[in-house]
Write a structure and sequence with these properties.
heterodimer; A: 198 residues; alpha+beta; Alpha-Beta Plaits; four-stranded antiparallel beta sheet; globular; B: mainly alpha; Rna Polymerase Sigma Factor, Chain: A; 2 domains; 8 helices; disordered N terminus
C-alpha cells in the first residue's frame, strides 16, 4: 500500500456533510461580511476623497481575507493612510515576518530591500519596538496587554515605495521569500509613517 | 432611455447574483469533501474539520467576485484552510499550557490490522509540526505537485521539497520502517 492509500484510509470515517447546506451557510454569513465591508469601504473612501487620493484606489471590499496573524496583534493603519489594506497601488508596505524567521532569512530580506530600486525608504520594526507601541495602544486594557508578550508580535520591514504602481510586483517578489508571513500595502500621504502602519 | 436603464438594473443585479451563487455552490459541492478530509488530517477532529471547512467557504464567498475567474480555486481554498489551521494552532499553543494531547507512542503500528494502522497515521501526523503536516497532507493526501504545495503555503519550492523529505522521514521513524513499504 502506498502513502496515498494510507491517507485515503485515514479519512474513511468521514461523517460527511451536505455541501448544499454548507454553500448556503457560506452565502448567508459571507454576504453579511461583504455588506459590512462595503459600508466600511464607503467611509474610508470618503476620508480618502477628502485627502485627495481617489485614483486607482482598490477598496477594501476586495481585500484578502486576513487570516494569517491575529488581527489585534497587527499594528493599525497610520494616520493619513487608508484604513484597510489595498491590493494595488499601495504607496507604503509592511512586510511581516514569521515568528520563526531566522537571522539569515531576515538579513537576506534586509539586503534585498536595501538593494531594491523600487524601495524608497525601508525601516525595520523590531519585536520590542512593536511591543512598546502595542502596550501604548492597548493601555486601557491591561488584561489584554498582560496576556501578550513581545514574542507574540510580528517583526516587520516598513517600506515606502518609489512608485505605487510597483506594489503588486514587489508584493509577489517578497511573498516568495523565506521568512515572510505576509505583506500589507496601504495608500498613504507623504507625511505618513513609513509602511502605513503605526 | 434613462428610465429603461434604471428599471432594468435590479433585475440584472438579481440575475448576476443568482449566477454567482450558483457558481459558488457548484464549487462548494466539488471541493467540500476533499477539504474537510484534509482539515481532519491536520487537526484530528472531524467536528473542527467541518468548522474550518465552513469558515474557508465563508471567507471565499466574501471575495468570490474577485477570485471566481482567473484564480486557481483549488489552491486558493487550501491556502485559506491552511491559514485557518495555522491560526487555530497558534491560538491553542498561546492560550493553553498543554500544547496538544499527545497520543501514546503508537504500539499498534506493527500490531497487524488495518484499522489500527489508519488511526496510527493520523496520530503520527499529529506529532509532527503543523508546517510539516501541511506539506504531507497537500503533497501526499491531495497529490498536489511540489510547486503547487509551495505556492499554497507561500514558501519556496526548495523549502517545500526539504520539508517534505524531512516530514516523510519523521513519519517513517514514528510508524516504523515497513509502514511505507507495505
Amino acid at each position: 500500500m502506498d502513502l496515498r492509500e494510507h491517507f485515503e484510509r485515514a479519512v474513511d470515517d468521514d461523517p460527511g456533510a451536505d455541501p448544499a447546506v454548507m454553500a448556503h451557510a457560506a452565502i448567508a454569513r459571507g454576504g453579511q461580511v461583504r455588506r459590512r465591508r462595503r459600508q466600511v469601504a464607503g467611509a474610508a473612501g470618503g476620508v480618502l476623497a477628502v485627502l485627495g487620493i481617489v485614483a486607482g484606489l482598490n477598496l477594501p471590499s476586495q481585500a484578502e481575507p486576513a487570516v494569517t496573524v491575529a488581527a489585534a496583534m497587527r499594528p493599525p493603519a497610520a494616520p493619513s493612510c487608508s484604513v484597510d489594506p489595498v491590493q494595488r497601488d499601495a504607496t507604503d508596505v509592511a512586510i511581516f515576518l514569521k515568528s520563526d524567521t531566522s537571522g539569515p532569512q531576515q538579513a537576506a530580506l534586509a539586503s534585498a530591500l536595501g538593494n531594491d530600486p523600487r524601495v524608497g525608504t525601508v525601516v525595520f520594526e523590531s519585536r520590542s519596538s512593536a511591543y512598546e507601541k502595542f502596550r501604548r495602544l492597548w493601555a486601557d486594557n491591561p488584561d489584554f496587554v498582560d496576556a501578550v508578550s513581545p514574542k507574540d508580535l510580528p517583526e516587520s520591514f516598513r517600506v515606502r515605495l518609489v512608485d505605487a504602481a510597483q506594489f503588486t510586483a514587489l508584493q509577489s517578489d517578497y511573498a516568495a521569500m523565506d521568512g515572510v508571513q505576509d505583506i500589507v500595502g496601504r495608500i498613504c500621504l507623504v507625511g505618513a509613517a513609513i509602511g502605513g502602519v503605526q | 432611455m434613462t428610465d429603461t436603464v434604471t428599471a432594468s438594473r435590479p433585475a440584472e443585479q438579481q440575475s448576476t447574483r443568482t449566477t454567482r451563487d450558483r457558481e459558488f455552490t457548484a464549487f462548494v459541492e466539488s471541493a467540500a469533501t476533499r477539504l474537510r478530509r484534509s482539515a481532519y488530517l491536520m487537526c484530528r477532529d472531524w467536528h473542527l474539520a467541518q468548522d474550518l471547512t465552513q469558515q474557508t467557504f465563508t471567507k471565499m464567498y466574501v471575495v468570490w467576485n474577485r477570485i471566481r475567474t482567473g484564480t486557481n480555486l483549488d489552491a486558493y481554498s487550501r491556502r485559506v484552510l491552511m491559514n485557518l489551521v495555522f491560526d487555530q494552532q497558534k491560538r491553542r499553543s498561546g492560550s493553553e499550557i498543554v500544547l496538544a494531547e499527545m497520543p501514546d507512542q503508537p504500539d499498534g503500528a506493527d500490531g497487524g490490522g488495518a484499522p489500527d494502522l489508519h488511526l496510527t497515521l493520523v496520530d503520527a501526523l499529529a506529532q509532527l509540526t503543523v508546517d510539516d503536516r501541511a506539506v504531507l497532507v497537500l503533497r501526499h493526501a491531495e497529490d498536489h505537485s511540489v510547486d503547487t504545495v509551495a505556492s499554497i503555503l507561500g514558501i519556496s519550492v526548495s523549502a517545500a521539497k526539504m520539508r517534505d523529505t524531512r516530514a516523510l522521514s519523521r513519519l517513517r521513524s514514528l510508524l516504523g520502517d515497513d509502514f511505507l513499504n507495505h
